[in-house]
Design a protein that fits this description.
393 residues, alpha/beta, Aspartate Aminotransferase, domain 1, Aspartate Aminotransferase, domain 2, seven-stranded mixed sheet, three-stranded antiparallel sheet, binds pyridoxal-5'-phosphate
């Protein structure tokens, strides 16, 4: 009889991967499935980035690298942060990890334990809640509200802080809602945090480059008063269409760099060497591929929002960032999971139920529009047909 630790029963999952597996299984039976479920760009990694990795392998970069990352990568990240976020960061505070997820894993492990409380967005990236539960800490949701364009109420967040709160997680632009938090909301939050110096903040800014309608990306790195307690999570996955390369980074407060590095040594030793060279090329090379991709997402965003709003029972706000639409589907009379399953099985459209992102996601479905306009239109037609037959049935 194997005796697993208790905490294994508390670990959640990311349903998008299950939906992907089900969609692929259906496709293997010959069904035409349009995948609006998975959150990854449908573009290829820019060729000069791929070439940099190939060159690194040919040049013999086959060994371990320093655990927090090759110095050149950390310097390239610091230069990128200075250029894009206007903040000078010592490269020594940057830890390169295999994907954005690893930073959240480390941050939540660092602060979570029984008796501790961690505030996290709900609906939000499912791994936050999963990992908080795993550590035995209390997961305290920050509700993201449709009527606030899926932002939060900063005063409500501040009111949720107790002496046991260790970490506050924010994510803007957000998965799954596409919500982008305004500068005013962040100003208010940061001002209020001055009264709670015991609370660390993890700002997940992995979608920083994907903001629309002339919006600016508001980075918490721009608030110097948070420097000694801010963990800034970012990476290459979404920006450079590099989800499979597993490249992410964080800026850690000075006092936490050693802890993050120790976790890295205990976990993965270092990131794949060739991938790190690709990461340098991505940051330092031409950015036109990123601009082209974001322009394509913007066009698709408009198509999907208009199309969803034309479907009976759906009502969709215009997302400010990322590549997700998060329509309210309460008008269909179905719960999120049921509608997700019916869209997949009857209409051949893969999406993810809002409840996969937390209890506050009931009544919503996440659509990833990282797919072609043509496929998005076909998917909308199919769902429209499904819903009209539902209404006339
Ligand atoms: N943070 C958010 C909000 C995400 O949506 C994702 C991926 O979907 C990640 C982090 C993880 O990114 P990575 O694939 O680099 O681990």
């Amino acid at each position: 009889m194997l005796r697993l630790s208790q905490k294994m029963s508390r670990l959640g999952t990311e349903t998008a991967f299950e939906v992907l597996a089900r969609a692929e299984a259906l496709a293997r039976t010959g069904k035409d499935v349009i995948n609006l479920g998975i959150g990854q760009p449908d573009f290829k990694t820019p060729p000069h980035v791929v070439e940099a990795a190939i060159k690194a392998l040919r040049d013999g970069h086959h060994g371990y690298t320093p655990s927090p990352g090759i110095p050149r990568v950390r310097e390239a990240v610091a230069a990128d942060l200075a250029a894009r976020r206007g903040v000078e960061v010592d490269p020594g505070r940057i830890v390169v990890v295999p994907g954005g997820k690893v930073t959240m894993f480390f941050a939540i492990l660092m602060f979570g334990e029984p008796g501790a409380e961690i505030l996290y967005p709900n609906p939000g990236f499912p791994i936050y809640e999963s990992m908080i539960n795993f550590t035995g800490a209390k997961a305290v949701p920050i509700p993201l509200l449709e009527e606030k364009d899926f932002s939060f109420d900063p005063d409500a967040v501040l009111d949720s802080i107790t002496p046991d709160t260790r970490l506050l997680i924010v994510n803007s632009p957000a998965n799954p809602t596409g919500g982008a938090v305004s500068r005013e909301a962040f100003d208010r939050l940061v001002a209020g945090l001055a009264e709670h110096p015991h609370v660390a903040v993890m700002s997940d800014e992995i979608y920083a480059r994907m903001v629309y309608d002339g919006r600016e990306h508001v980075s918490l790195l721009g608030y110097p008063e948070l420097a000694d307690r801010l963990i800034l999570l970012d990476g290459w996955s979404k920006t450079y269409a590099m989800t499979g390369w597993r490249m992410g980074y964080a800026v850690w407060p000075e006092a936490l760099v050693e802890h993050a590095t120790r976790l890295a040594v205990n976990c993965h030793s270092c990131v794949n060497a060739a991938a790190q060279f690709a990461g340098i090329a991505a940051l330092e090379g031409p950015q036109d591929a990123v601009d082209t991709m974001v322009a394509a997402f913007d066009e698709r965003r408009k198509v999907i929002v208009d199309g969803l709003n034309a479907i009976p029972g759906f009502s969709c706000r215009t997302p400010g960032g990322a590549f997700y639409a998060f329509p309210n589907i309460t008008g269909t009379g179905m719960n999120a999971r049921k509608l997700q399953n019916r869209m997949l099985e009857e209409a051949g459209v893969a999406t993810v139920a809002g409840t996969s992102f937390g209890s506050f996601g009931e009544g919503y479905i996440r659509f990833s529009y990282a797919n072609s306009v043509e496929n998005i239109r076909r998917a909308l037609d199919r769902i429209g047909e499904l819903m009209s037959s539902e209404v006339s049935a």
